[in-house]
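Supplementary Methods, section 5.1.

A reviewer requested that the exact input to the structure prediction be made available. We therefore reproduce it here, unchanged from the version used in the analyses.
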Amino acid sequence: MDALQAMLTRKSIKKYKPDPVPQELIDQIIEAGLNAPSGLNKQAPIILAVTNRQVRDELSKLNAGKDPFFRADPFYGAPVVLVVLADKSVPTYLYDGSLVMENLQLAAHALGLGACWIHRAKETFETDEGKAILKSLGLEGEYEGIGNCILGYPDHDPDKKPRKENRVYYIK
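The structure derived from this sequence is encoded cell-by-cell as follows.
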C-alpha cells in the first residue's frame, strides 16, 4: 500500500481480535514511528512497546480512571499498546510526538493491522503508578505522555467517517 492510499483509507479501529501481533510487524511499525520528522532533529519522543498482558491491563486501568466516559477497557481489547512519550525539555516535543503517533497508525494500516489513538497518556504518566513504570525502565527526566497507539487485528470494519467540507482556503 502506498503512503497516499494509507492516508486516505485509514480508520480508527475500536474492536480487536485477541490474536497476538508478530514481533516483526510491531518492530516495523515502531521503526516508522521513530522515523517521523522532529523539530531540529531533536528526536524527543520515545515509545514504550507494551505486549505484556499484565502491564497492558494495568495501563488500561490507569487510563480508564481518567476517562469521564468510563469504559471497562479504553484500549478496546487491542493486544498491543505503543505509548508515545516525549522529553518536555525539547520545545517541539508535543508536535514531534504527534507526528510519531500518526506514523504509527499509518504503518499499522499499511501492514494490515488496526490502530487507534487513545488519549490520556499524559494523565496516566502523571500518576504515581505511571511514574513507577517509567522508573522501572530506567527512564529519568521530564517525559510527557503524548498518546497510546493501540494495535491489533481488527474485529470489525467501521464505515469511513465523512469529512467536513470547506476546510481549505486558497490564497493565490
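The CA atoms of residues 117 and 149 lie 5 Å apart. These observations are discussed further in the main text.
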